[in-house]
Amino acid sequence: MRRLAFIIPVVLFLMVAAALGLGLRRDPSILPSMLIDRPIPTFDLPGLTPEDTVGLASSDFTGKPVLLNVFASWCVACVIEHPMLLRLQAQGVTIHGLDWKDEPAAGAEWLAQRGNPYTLIGSDPRGRTGIDFGVTGAPETFVIDGHGRVRYRHVGPITPEVWTEILQPMMDRLETET
Amino acid sequence: MRRFVLGLFCALLIAGPVAAVLPEEQLADPVLEARARAISQELRCVVCQNQSIDDSDAPLAADLRAIVRERLSAGDTDEEVMAHIVARYGNFVLLKPPLDLQTILLWSAPLLVLIPGGLGLALYLRRRSRAGAADPTPLSAEERRALAAILKTGDAP
To answer: Out of A95, A107, B14, B50, which could bridge A99 as a Cys pair, Cβ 3.0 to 4.6 Å?
Structure first.
């Protein structure tokens, strides 16, 4: 009984410490996506300039797995991410772009200066499509499978580590799935 | 100087919390607007995460405030508006999270702490009062002499 009265608080403390310790390793500011394994929201967005006859629509996400990258000309971290996107495009990865809460002309200018890594681009100046995706900021990247379902959401720039450790294995797996 | 500090203090007293809702965002119907304000105060801003969207100046919070007002104007109930936002950002945006499997530990934490703590305290108090009630051993003749000497001199031997 005496010994139990000593052991119980120690065990309780270790449990709480372990739970809090695990909590420290997570970034609480990154929200889980509500769309994992669910179909993408329906949308049909125009392109960035009046000359762009094709924009981006939810019906474009069929056939093979693609990345949907949320960017904007006001987004500082997007500048950091941009060379990585160009490299991925050169490797044959299909990336669609969502110009989120941005002047379409400013987005077009931004891409003209830096190069366009995107196959299709949708302009979302009011940000509603991004909100339907649960976007909390730019850049964000969604992995969308060949059936138009969201499989993963990455918050922040795609670094080489994020690509080789998370996104590339996932894309390879989805490729064999379809 | 003192008057300045006092003035500063008084200024702080009248400076209440100011919401971020801009006049042009507000609905003309005061009843709908009041409902929109109440809902916005329950929804967490996903950018500055410890503010409600009613308090936050983040552009995304303004968008969400606009969506809340659009849904209300379209005839949604308060619950439907909440569900619309939760469908996009999850239960995390509710400043009062609902009781479900994920939050059961959070909601039961006060009980989990209070019940064992109360039991422990009750046990301890009962044991102590029982110990106090038992007859103390009386002082021996020698101890009584020593005590009398201490009381007389006010000094330990």
So the answer is: A107
